[in-house]
Amino acid sequence: MTSRTKQESADPTIHLRRHALGVLAALLCLGAIFFHFRPPSNSFEIMCESACWRMAPVTALLWLAYYRILELPQWLVLAVPCFLIVVVLRPKLLLFAAPVILLILFLKPRPAKSAGKKQAARRR
C-alpha cells in the first residue's frame, strides 16, 4: 500500500484539499494571464497582478507535491517557515544558517535494523 492511499484512507478531506489547491493554482494562472493581456490601471489591480504572478507557481508546486508534504516530519514543517522569516528579516543570518541547513540535510538518522537482522548478524 503506497503512502498516498494510506493518507487518503485516513482522512477523506485530504483528496479534496489537493483538488482545491489545483483549482486555486488554475485561477491564479488565469488571473496572471488576464493581467498580462489587460494591464492594471490602479494600485489594487497592480497588487492583484503581483499576487497572481507570485502565488500561481507556488500554489501549483504545492498541488504537485501535496502528498510528499504530508509525509514531512512535524518539526520540519514548523522549522522551514521560521527559517524563511528569519532570512527575509535578517539576510546576513543566512551565512550562519546555511551550514545548519546542510547538516540537517546530510546528517539524517539511520533507519533502525529489524530484530531478525540483528540476530542473524550475531549468529555469523
Low-confidence stretches: none
State the major sheet: none
Work out the number of β strands. Answer: 0
Count helical runs: 7
Radius of gyration: 22 Å
Secondary structure class reads: mainly alpha
Order of helices and strands: HHHHHHH
Shape descriptor? flat
Mean pLDDT: 81
Q: Please report the distance between the alpha carbons of the first and last residues.
A: 34 Å
Q: Percent of residues in beta strands?
A: under 5%
State the share of residues found in helices, binned by percent.
Answer: over 70%
Keywords for this entry:
single chain, 124 residues, mainly alpha, 79% helix, 0% strand, flat
Overall description:
The chain has seven helices and no strands. The chain has helices at residues 3-10, 13-37, 43-64, 66-70, 74-89, 94-106, 115-123. Helix 2 packs antiparallel against helix 3. The mean pLDDT is 81.
Topology summary:
Elements: H1 3-10, H2 13-37, H3 43-64, H4 66-70, H5 74-89, H6 94-106, H7 115-123
Helix pairs in contact: 2-3
Summarize the structure.
With 124 residues, this protein is mainly alpha-helical. The protein has 7 helices and no strands. The chain is flat and about 75 Å long.
